[in-house]
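--- STAGE predict ---
source: upstream dedup step, 1 unique chain passed
mode: sequence only
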Amino acid sequence: MATDERNFRSGYLEKVGCRGVGDTNKLENLLKEKLVDQGKLKQFCIRFAVPVRHRSLLWCSLLNIHPMYTNNLQYVMTQRKAVYMDLLRALKMMRLVDEAKMPKSRIFYAMWLLETKRLQLGCNISTAEDSFIAIAETLLKLFDNEVEIYWMAKKFYEITEDIEKDLPKLLALTNSLLEKNNQELFRYLETNNLLQKLPLSKWYVTCFAGVLNETALARVWDKIIGGSFQILAFVTYKTLSKLEKTIYKCTDIESLLKCIDTQAKNSQEMSDVIVSKSIEMWQSSEFFYKSF
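--- STAGE serialize ---
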C-alpha cells in the first residue's frame, strides 16, 4: 500500500515538511488543473501526508472556499473578502467587537453568528462557549490569511455538525478499540468511572481542537477533510494508551484531564507521536479502505 505514515520516521518527515518528490508533484498537478477534481484530492488526503506548504490551498479546495474552476479563483476570493469585511464592519458599527481587545477567534464567531442570523440581542461574545471558537483558534495557529481562516472555520464547523450526528457510532468504536486492544486500561477507566466522564463528545465535535498540539492535529484534520471521521476514535485510543502509565495514577476525571493537557496538548513531540500512531493504526483498519 502506498502510504507515507506507516512509521514514526515518515511521521517525523511530514512534521518537518519533507515529502516524497513524487507525492508532492502529484498533489501540485492536481491543484493546478483547470477543473479541480475533489475526489482525487480527497483520496490524496486519505492516503498520503499533506505537505505543509500545500495544506491551505488543499483545504480551501476541498472545503469549497476556492472555486472548482481555478480560473475563477481571484474573482471568488474577492467576493469572499468582501463578505468578510462587510461582516466585520457591521459588528464594529454595532459595537459588539473590539479588534484591539477581543481575540480574533471570538470576532470570527461573532461574524459567523451575524452571517447565519444566529446573533441574538444581549449575546456576550467574550464569554460565549462554542466549538466554532475552538476550531477558529486552531486554524489561526496554522495559517496566516484571516479571510481564508474565517471561511475555513465556517466550512469545518459544518463538517463537525455531521460528526455530531455520528457520535453514537464514534463512541461505540472508541469503547471497542479500548476493550479489544488494551483490556487492562479499559477496565481501569471503567472501574474508576473515568471513561464515562471523559468529554469525548466535545473532543469529537471540536476534532480535538485545544486538546492536542495544533501542528500535529493538522494531520488528523487532513483525514477528516478527506472524509474519514472514524480516525477520531483512533486518536482517543492512542492518546489514552500513550499516557497509560500516568493514567494509572489518576483516580478522578480532573487529574486525568490535567494529565492529557500537560503531556499531550503542551508537548508537540508527544502530540506528534500520538497522531502518527493513530494514523498508522487507522490505516491498518477496515475504516481506511472504506474511505475510498
